[in-house]
């Protein structure tokens, strides 16, 4: 109901803006405070040697691991009081406010702990956070089955007069809380309710087991592998360990061996997947849906699986000719490098498309890195956000104990007229035991408090960038720079959401809308007019030449149709697995049929790629979301920002129509408000197809 699958939590108080006072490394270009802050080594805690220890994110209790227990107990006590209030308050808008405060009090601990348990370098903190997650999770399960609490919301939503008196955001939030309740089967009789609770627990356990299995290495006896390729893999006694697909390996045989061994079916993992899919289907049917996909897609842009399949089938039809041309191009390159065996196999496209890109466009990352120092990229974001939205980023010195690693930077997000909007903690650098993923975490959700103040949002952006060296600041590859812009898109969604309720703050919105702001930022990151504002050689100050940006953009179109076709295949497979049950065939037979129909490369016998499909856990029935979000982002870019990426009026409309509402408004209404028309499935497909074409307009506009 309240926290499951959501990102939210606690945060920090304001401190003086110290960015300008940071001692910068000598460089030949001048940075604003935020640029300078990211091109110097952090000063660490010696700035605050004798200061009071504040605790993680400024939460006083979290100066020590034991503080998690204190924080969770406080949250649980507050929860009990709020449950009493909710059950005794007459139905009305106040009911929704109490539910949201209940959600907030749990999320302030649970989602902060969710982040700390994977990111904190100290085991004691990670373990304490893990325990807090379990404790809050148990409370959420109790609330999900609290009939009296459910009835207090039901009284509101079954009273037509009261419902009609609610403003649209309050009504939507009330319906979302009810939806969360009903997933637990609370509206069912006692026996069915117990079945629903048991299924929810079983699904959580199966999801965790399946997720672990997706990364588990396979091993093979040494003598079964040709001797000349064994050195590419990990050796363990008489066995070779295969822990991934080795997709970039130049030797065809290495990629083939990795593919066939890593994807070899594991009976335990196969049984786990089958049980997960059938349990999801049973739960969906129990709570009133014909399939799990119908349940998962409620409230999304797509609305239902029929629309998703229409979108995927139409996109596949439009892609087919282009995909065949891409496969022909890959076949040509394979024949050139390996004339004995030129048939394109599933392990070939990532490697050969990379070879084609490198040969045609000379986009060696080391040529670009000197122009993309981290400070320069942060300054670029600062310029873009300032011109589009009137926002500035300021580096702020964290208090002692506020951050979990001394290289974490804290940014204050400040609007030119509204003042402080929130905080972003930037955990950007590689370290031991840190997850290798780029992601955004909501630590505290924004909401309107009872006293009329706004609870400022707090987020973490996590990247895995190399550290600076003695001779240079941190230098980013073009891909890293694009990822930075992508994640900052999520952060701005969180910062600029100004919802009354934290349950729908920022990125707490349907999955097929949540990626729109982040993907839109990729378009800005690939536009020369934007890149030219900040890409400077860290030693000479020389700007990045325009033709290098053009080459980079053109190179991304190489085999892009085949890449998109692969995403269509994965999305379709996900829909079928979460569609009508019992499945008409085994999951492997369905994989084979779907791959041949929606991708075009042959299925390899005795492989089961679906057992490595980790997104089936977090994105069950929603894997299509990335494609749909990209379609929306593409339309927003072309309609609103292509002519002028710094158009302030378009930026303000973007904030007003899309970012401000979080998940508090129907996603399609937000898209309509921005585009000033209601896009159809055909419009989404056309946008994605048009994005595959070489388009010189972006980098040639302003060429003089």
- Level of helix content? 40-55%
CATH class assignment of the domain at 370-542: Alpha Beta
Derived structural class = alpha+beta
User: Per CATH, what is the topology of the domain at 370-542?
Assistant: Collagenase (Catalytic Domain)
Total strands: 10
Mean pLDDT: 91
Determine Rg (CA atoms, Å). 26 Å
- Overall body shape: globular
**Could you state the CATH homologous superfamily of the domain at 370-542?**
Collagenase (Catalytic Domain)
Flag low-confidence runs: 1-32, 45-49, 696-704
Number of helices: 28
Calculate the terminal CA-CA distance, rounded to whole Å: 56 Å
- Roughly what fraction of the amino acids lie in strands? 5-15%
Quick structural overview:
The chain has helices at residues 33-38, 67-88, 93-119, 123-144, 147-157, 160-165, 168-183, 190-214, 252-262, 267-286, 292-296, 305-337, 349-361, 365-368, 374-389, 478-496, 511-514, 516-525, 528-531, 546-555, 560-577, 587-598, 615-618, 625-641, 648-659, 667-675, 681-690, 697-700, and strands spanning 218-221, 234-236, 239-242, 391-396, 409-415, 419-429, 439-444, 447-448, 454-455, 458-465. The protein is an alpha+beta fold and 704 residues long.
Structure, explained:
Its main location: mitochondrion. Residues 246-687 form the Peptidase M3A/M3B catalytic domain. Its cofactor is Zn(2+). The chain has 704 residues and is an alpha+beta fold. Among the domains are: 56-187, Endopeptidase. Chain P, domain 1 (Glutathione S-transferase Yfyf (Class Pi), Chain A, domain 2, Up-down Bundle), CATH 1.20.1050; 370-542, 3-Layer(aba) Sandwich (Collagenase (Catalytic Domain)). The chain contains 28 helices and 10 strands. β5 and β6 (419-429) form a beta hairpin.
